[in-house]
Structure formats: C-alpha cells, structure tokens
Dihydrolipoamide acetyltransferase component of pyruvate dehydrogenase complex
Amino acid sequence: MSQTKSFNLPDLGEGLPDATIVEWFVKEGDVIRLDEPLVSMETAKAVVEVPSPVSGKVLKLAGAAGDIVVTGHMLAHFEIDPNLPQRAEGQDTGHHHGAPAEAAPVPVAAPAPAAAAAERADEGTVVGAMVSSNAVHTEQAVAVGGVKAMPAVRAMARKLGVDLTRVRATGADGAVTMNDVKQAAAAGTAKVGATPAPAPQAAAPLAAARAETTRTPLSAAGKPMRTAPPGMVAKGQPEPLKGVRRNMARVMADAHSKVVPTTLNDDADIHAWMPGNDMTSRLVRAIVAACQAVPAMNAWFDGDTLTRTLHAQVDIGIAVDTDDGLFVPALRNADMLDARGVREGINRLRQQVEDRSIAPSELSGYTISLSNFGMFAGRYATPVVVPPCVAIVAAGRARFQLTPVMGGVETHKVIPLSVTFDHRACTGGEAARFLRAMIDDLALAH
C-alpha cells in the first residue's frame, strides 16, 4: 500500500501565525521531487519559496492563490514514491510536516469562494530567505508556465495586472525582473486579459440592476428619502487583510494593549538653515543627538520582566508608507553616519521596500523610530510606540509662522515635532529633555 504524508505549513519566521499563498508551482496530480519548489508563501515580512519535503505525487493542495493558511495546518498532501530520493529521518528539518494518512486529519484553511478567488490582490511582498533542511534557500527565479521569474516579481505582476507571458524579459537567463513588470504596467502593453468581454445582452440586466440601486435623495413618489437607521450594516464585500497590512493590524493592537503612551509636541525653528540641508537627514541627526543626551529614550523595555536595555548604538526605524501597509526598515548605526551616508542609507531602504527586495532582518531590531508624515500633510500626531522600543518621533509638515524677535517679529520656518514615549520606561522629564535636545540640534545652521 502506498504511503502518504501530510506537509503542514512550517513557521516561516519569528513565530508568524499564518501565511498567504502567492503561487503554487505544482497542481494536484503532479509528481514533484524532494526540495523542488512547491509553493511561494507571503508572510508579514517576506515572500519565500517552500520546497517539497518529499518526492512523490501531489494528492491535495490547501487552497488557491490568495488563501491564508495557518502555521501548523496542512499545506499539501503527498503520495510518497519510494523510487525517488527521500529525506532520511536524520536529515529532518525540525519542522513538523504532519503524520501518515492513518493519523487524524489536520484541519486546513478553508479556501475562499470561487468568485472572491478570481482576482486576488497581493499585499506587502518582501523578498527574503527561509530555513529548510539544514541550509538557507534564498529566493530564486522559477520557471512556471514558460515564464521565469521570482515569486516576488510574480506577486507584483498580479498586483499590477500584468501578464508575465507578454513581458519582455531582461534579467539573467531570460528571467522577468521587477523593473520589467513595472515598465510593462506603465506602458500598458501586457495587461491581463482574464476573460472575454461580456456579450451585449448580458450587460443589459447588469445595467438595469445598477439603475435600481442608484442613490437618489427622492423616493419614487418624489418625496425626500428617509436615511437608513444607524443599526443598518454597510454594504460591500469584506476581504481578509493579508501580508504587511495583516501584520500591521496585529502589531498595532498588541502595542495598544501593552504600552502606556504619552506624547509631547513642540516646534523646531529652522530659520537658520543654510541652503542644501536635507530635512530627513537633519531629523535623523537630531534624534541621534537627543539619544546621546538622554539614553533612556534609546532603549528597549520588557514589560513582563520589568527590565530595560539601553543601547550604545542608534538604529532608527524609518517608517515607509506603501499601498500594502506600513514598512519600518532599520537605518543601522545612524550615530556613525554623516548627512550623505544617512541620505544614501534611506534611499537604499526605500528602494528595497519599493522593489520588495529588502531582507526580513532589516525590518526589525531598531532602537527608536521616525515617522516623517509631514511630507504628505498634518502638523502634530500621536505616533504609536511598538515594543520593545520606548519612543518614536514624528515630524509634521513644515510651515512659516510669525516669531517674536528683538525689535519686532520675523517669519520663521518651523517643523512640528511629536514624541510619543512609553511612560512605563521613561519619565516625562526624560522625554522633555529629549525633545529639547532635538530642537536645539535642528536650530543649528548646518
């Protein structure tokens, strides 16, 4: 009798509770060999390739692209082929891949309805690496459907509605690159033609249905319409959060339940700045100066053990806003960088976030963070401190204001600053001195 094996989704990094299917490299009924790419999965930080743990026939797959699979639940079910290479027991990865078919079945993530699965939007793709067997497998371009591309590139193509089979590949060995996909999307030369246009007769009922639901302030009798009562449920199709946005929801809720936040606001006068000053670089320098003046704000705090860790280096998490959610890559050793080094480092991090090529390790481990939301709009904020950090700085939109000076008033440019700190680990005096140190450094001409 043939032996079967269930493969459960392993922990793809840092205890993540689930992952989203980006793309299967096989279908049910296919034969796959040991360590060949099985599926690409998107976590909160990475799109990673999961290799096959066995050689054999694929009997069942957990879901379709876009479905969420819980860590430890069945990802795939195989019929093992004894004539093909298998991993010896002593070479086991340490991940639990499930038991033979005689064991109790493992619950699987229920696939979404077919209508919702027809068009799945990828969320927050980041390129990374995963541990499998006894080695680290970095992401590689894989040929699927005659097109060679990395999982992150495929995810981006799906997001932008680009048909990879119609994209001109410029990468090594004929692989489609991220830039190829973006250029095709901008040119509109490779749009996905999922289904043919509906017949004219089919469009008529749809138009009639839309006409029936068209909003109007008047009833059929020509009288003012009564608005819906507050208890009415809003119309629309709920969709599960995925990837970065899903993780953001968890992290923010966790931070809200643990941190005791307090926020201070003030303005930094930058009237003395000479031409050529870079706003973000100066903010980073001011944070470094403030951390050196008040080390208590450049720290981690463990609320369970009530312990505090002060850091000698200043690693600043730079908040990067994307359509997929919030990324916070770390600008390492900011205290050792000059203005040029800071700008180059930030540009590199932003580019890697945009290309989804940033390593997961670069998205954690910072000692304090900065949100420069003022580049869009807004003056003051109450930014969220994410444990284990104890402080975050937010800079609002710069503005001009009348400033009293000896003999009258002048128009000075100022930057609104907000500092949120965890009052379990920092005092109000420490936060105020930190803010004062930032303001003093920003007031310098260079």
